[in-house]
Sequence to fold (265 residues):
Amino acid sequence: MTQFIHPSRKFSLQPSSASGKKVLTDGIAEEHQGFDCYEEFLSTFLERGYRFCFFPELSEPFFELVLRHDIDFDTHLALRMATKEKELGVRSTFFFLIRSPMYNVLDPQDYENIQLIREMGHVISLHFDPTLYVDFEQGLRIEVDMFKSIFQTDIHIVSLHRPSTFFQQHDAPIAGIEHTYQSRYFRQVKYISDSTGVWRYGHPFKTQEFLTGKSMHVLIHPIWWMLEGRTNLDKLRCYYRQRVDALKANFSENCIPFRQLNGHL
Ligand SMILES: [Zn+2]
Fold:
């Protein structure tokens, strides 16, 4: 049996019977564990002695942590996450899509949410999907110019949306702009990601790098932390219902005949 001492809790890990996966004593599989309290997650890094910094500041081999958020779904959840970080004195970088089917940075509420995140002291930048372009360098230039114009900000680094192996191994800047998969950020420090809502390579606090204080690049998606639910699927279910309700409210507000349908859908 392995034991991991957490500042506020002690977890006992035991091998599960059928799958061979480890399960915690309260029945939650190890890969889902620890997504329930974001403040506790951040505090554990602070208590370990990590200093949160922005990408261009990352320079030391130990005790620096660059916290990154790729916003794939929702600026409201991003704002909630930014607020919790500010309360802890934590700084991070939020990357937003400007050609997303899930949100619209020009929507007044999304625009305001992003501005509020920046006013809290976080960095905002572009989350770029290279698959939307035949010439991804030209596409990046176009989107960077749009983002700079919309938010009146400079862009020093971008993150790539669902990067293929080609982009994960692309060590040079793209169109002269740094990206988060360059070696400096992706291979020379420990990289941790909560993509898909599970810890696919084990819990970060049990890695050798955390235990020795190695500098880290941590990618966190708000959707896995800001919603109710024990597992990633529970959270997606919860989020989907919220979006359907919001869509119905928007239809009702913008289309009088729809109000006769609302309640029957
Ligand atoms: Zn993405």
